[in-house]
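Backbone-to-sequence.
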């Protein structure tokens, strides 16, 4: 059947949504798991983090496997793992069963993080890249937000088991879409890609690593703001509920701010200006937030500025990778993301313990955004220099 890039975007978005829904499931039913299994919040935190651990091992192999066997085939197999992970978690009778289910589902998700972005880069090249990527990226936070809204009530009305089982249903829908309808772009030469196998050049590795560190830091800054923003507001006298609602504004504004950033970068051909402007605003707000009297406004503005900048950073590997190297290259790019997701919140926690308050972690987040701004200058200079400009 014929297929166009916008149909592909919907297909890949379904895959990314399913990952967000499954990732959030443990957090959504945490009180039920604590009650039924007698575990603590430290073990809940471990279960949440386990979902991302396979990515540290599989990010780079995922790209190579997609290149060798075909993206659709590998992604379909990975979604089967997510389905299995949801079923195993839903049928778990002890903590070990939950651990097993999370690791199985997280293994599948690791492949999706890498290969779905690679498939986006195959279809959305040139001027459509930034806008297409902005819509694609939104699937992760929207999946998490939808799960936060729905999974708790579902667990109350049925059981926590049903929540995990329904993540397998969501993954099944993504499997039908990918396996049944996705096709590589006509000019991809996917079948012959592994035969040529040029391998990543030193130039590609260097530029992708610079972009990967940017991706690690910009996501790490967001996770720190999301994790320690409520702590700051509670220190300032807000209730637990109110502090969570205020900080959640950073995520809800993604619904319009992410596509806006991609559209402006595409429509006016100014991706660098969009990125730099968003980063400067984030740095300024990150410094101001601990001392402001209007946190609702500042957290919302931070989320908008952050969301505007993200599509440009996520698109940088596609600008420097040869088509046949997109899989391994984006695997390397995402490896930095998995490392940052694991390490940056831990570093911020040590900073809070050392300083005795939540102000320092938020300033740490602002510092990470400033580092992204500096690294963007390095990336553009090196890209221009190595291209012989």
């Amino acid at each position: 059947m014929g297929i166009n890039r916008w149909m592909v975007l919907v297909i890949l978005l379904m895959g990314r949504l399913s990952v967000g829904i499954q990732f959030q499931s443990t957090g959504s039913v945490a009180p039920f798991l604590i009650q039924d299994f007698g575990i603590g919040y430290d073990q809940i935190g471990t279960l949440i983090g386990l979902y991302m651990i396979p990515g540290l091992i599989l990010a780079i192999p995922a790209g190579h496997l997609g290149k060798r066997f075909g993206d659709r085939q590998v992604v379909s197999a990975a979604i089967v793992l997510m389905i299995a992970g949801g079923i195993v978690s839903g049928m778990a009778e002890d903590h070990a069963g939950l651990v097993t289910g999370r690791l199985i589902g997280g293994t599948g998700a690791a492949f999706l993080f890498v290969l779905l972005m690679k498939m986006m880069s195959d279809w959305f090249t040139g001027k459509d890249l930034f806008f297409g990527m902005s819509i694609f990226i939104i699937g992760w936070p929207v999946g998490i937000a939808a799960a936060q809204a729905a999974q708790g009530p579902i667990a109350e009305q049925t059981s926590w088991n049903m929540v995990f089982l329904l993540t397998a249903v969501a993954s099944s829908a993504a499997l039908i879409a990918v396996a049944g309808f996705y096709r590589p772009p006509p000019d991809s030469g996917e079948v012959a890609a592994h035969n040529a196998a040029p391998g990543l050049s030193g130039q590609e590795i260097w530029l992708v690593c610079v972009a990967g560190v940017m991706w690690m830091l910009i996501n790490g800054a967001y996770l720190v703001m999301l994790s320690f923003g409520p702590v700051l507001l509670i220190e300032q006298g807000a209730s637990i509920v109110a502090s969570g609602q205020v900080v959640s504004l950073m995520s809800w504004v993604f619904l319009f701010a992410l596509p806006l950033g991609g559209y402006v970068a595409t429509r006016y051909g100014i991706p660098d200006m969009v990125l730099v402007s968003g980063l400067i605003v984030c740095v300024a707000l990150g410094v101001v937030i601990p001392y402001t009297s209007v946190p609702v406004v500042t957290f919302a503005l931070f989320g908008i500025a952050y969301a505007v900048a993200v599509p440009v950073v996520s698109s940088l590997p596609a600008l420097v990778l040869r088509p046949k190297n997109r899989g391994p290259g984006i695997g390397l790019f995402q490896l930095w993301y998995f490392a940052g997701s694991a390490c940056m919140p831990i570093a911020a926690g040590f900073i809070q313990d050392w300083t005795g308050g939540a102000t320092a972690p938020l300033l740490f987040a602002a510092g990470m955004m400033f580092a992204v701004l500096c690294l963007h200058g390095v990336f553009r200079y090196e890209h221009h220099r190595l291209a012989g400009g």
